[in-house]
Amino acid sequence: MVGISGGNGAGKSTLLQILAGFVHPEAGLVRAAVGVGYCPQAILLYEQLTVAEHFEYFAGARAAAVPWESAGRELARRYRFDSWWGERVATLSEGTRQKLNLALALAAEPGLLLLDEPYSGFDWETYLLFWEHAAELKRAGRTLVIVSHLFYDRGKFDRRLRLADGRLGEERDP
Amino acid sequence: MKRLGLSVRMVGREVLRHRAAVTLLFVVPTVLYVLIQATAGERLVPFQLSATGVTLLAGSERALSLLFMGCTAMCGLMAFLAFLLTWRPIQTDRRLVFEGYRPAELLWAKMIVIAVAAAAVAIYVAVLLLCFHQPSRWGGILLGFFLAGLLYGLVGIVVGVVSRSELAGILTILLLVNLDPGWLQNPVFYAGAHNRAIIDWLPSHHPCQLVMLSAFTTRPLAGEAALGVVWLFGLGAAAGVGYRLRLGLVPRRKGNQTSSRD
């Protein structure tokens, strides 16, 4: 589990967008030997579709028949938004939208997860649930790269990197 | 095909759940037609069509207004609907492409839904027209309305992919609809226009000609319909290229997922 920190405007989100292929790098190459999941910092959802329809739509991208309903419901239960399963995104609170935003990135069970401040907008309980889930994913052999600016997240990472002046370096303890 | 089907279903649901927008698709032409009926007279007005050359035709002011405003309404409504389906969701569309959808699948889904909506509204406007006016070739008018809606649906997609702000996109559509179908394609204006080449080379020209030819002449319609279809291909290609560029995702290769730029 890798944490990336940096000041406002340091380029943390841009770095993740480049790694995910959302932004063209000015130079260089990105190579990933495993499937990549990406949770953007901005909530990117369809206002008029329901929670269930989002899981169905995203699962449709994958060629193999995916049991999207059971996987989606499991994530919705874990992050406690299953009671909104049939509700449109337009009617959801900001926190619930953020949960769905994250759950869609997790649903494909990729080997590498790029998560850009995935818990902003979460209540404390859900924040703890996220870290519990992240630890489980790590134990299952997944790699997580998480952009975080929270000081108290530091202890959760195996490796902490800091982005400053366009350079990524090991973060030292203060 | 499975992904295209799923995308069409989802885009269709998105449209149907915009209840206010769907209601307006039918309310706007109704209000326009009721207002024309209440205000326009039966005075014969001379006009000219590019499809008939120098021949001067004459039609009642009310009939001309009904047909002309029918075309304008179709163009405006479909352009705004397409813009609604393109501009706001484009970042979420990028996410779907990242997950594995092809941009073409997502774009085709939008175009199919716009075509269905254009057909539904064109039928409604053409049937509504019969309450106020009995044209000679109703089928040609219906086809003209449908083509006008379809073409401006594609214009709406193009504006949706090139606009950086929502307001700029809305104002661009307002400008285009007011200029092209809402003013320059008016056959009364056309008769006295100095530069007709500009008017002939605008997207709604051939559908509007098709509508007027159907209503006031017995001339064949195939030529105007074919030219309208040529415009459809042109605008469809522009929408495809623009949408692909706007999504702007770095292509991935199978196996080792790789993205690069030299």
Task: Characterise this structure.
The complex is a heterodimer of chains A (174) and B (262). Chain A is of the alpha/beta class. Chain A has helices at residues 12-20, 51-59, 68-78, 94-107, 124-139, and strands at 2-5, 28-32, 36-39, 112-116, 143-147, 159-164, 167-170. Chain A has a 6-stranded mixed sheet, with helices on both faces. In chain A, a hairpin with a 2-residue loop joins strand 6 and strand 7. Chain A is globular. Chain B has 11 helices and 3 strands, in the order H-H-E-E-H-H-H-H-H-H-H-H-H-E. Chain B has helices spanning 2-17, 19-39, 61-86, 90-99, 103-130, 138-162, 166-184, 187-191, 196-200, 205-216, 222-247, and strands spanning 44-48, 56-60, 257-261. Chain B has a two-stranded antiparallel sheet. In chain B, strand 1 and strand 2 form a beta hairpin. Chain B is elongated. Classes of the chains: A alpha/beta (174), B mainly alpha (262). Chains A and B meet through strand 2 and helix 2 of A and helix 1, helix 4 and strand 3 of B. Strand 2 of chain A pairs antiparallel with strand 3 of chain B.
Number of domains of chain B: 1
SS class of chain A? alpha/beta
Q: Which chain pair has the greatest contact? A: A-B, 37 and 31 residues
Average pLDDT confidence of chain A is 90
The gyration radius over C-alpha positions of chain A equals 16 Å
N-to-C SSE string of chain B, H for helix and E for strand: HHEEHHHHHHHHHE
Strand % of chain B is 5-15%
Task: Write the H/E string of chain A, N to C.
Answer: EHEEHHHEHEEE
Jot down its keywords.
heterodimer, A: 174 residues, alpha/beta, 5 helices, 7 strands, 34% helix, B: 262 residues, mainly alpha, two-stranded antiparallel ribbon, 11 helices, 3 strands, 74% helix, 6% strand, elongated
Short structural summary:
The complex is a heterodimer of chains A (174) and B (262). Chain A is built from five helices and seven strands, in the order E-H-E-E-H-H-H-E-H-E-E-E.
What is the topology?
The complex is a heterodimer of chains A (174) and B (262).
Chain A: E1 2-5, H1 12-20, E2 28-32, E3 36-39, H2 51-59, H3 68-78, H4 94-107, E4 112-116, H5 124-139, E5 143-147, E6 159-164, E7 167-170
Parallel strand pairs in A: 1-5, 1-6, 3-4, 4-5
Antiparallel strand pairs in A: 6-7
Chain B: H1 2-17, H2 19-39, E1 44-48, E2 56-60, H3 61-86, H4 90-99, H5 103-130, H6 138-162, H7 166-184, H8 187-191, H9 196-200, H10 205-216, H11 222-247, E3 257-261
Antiparallel strand pairs in B: 1-2
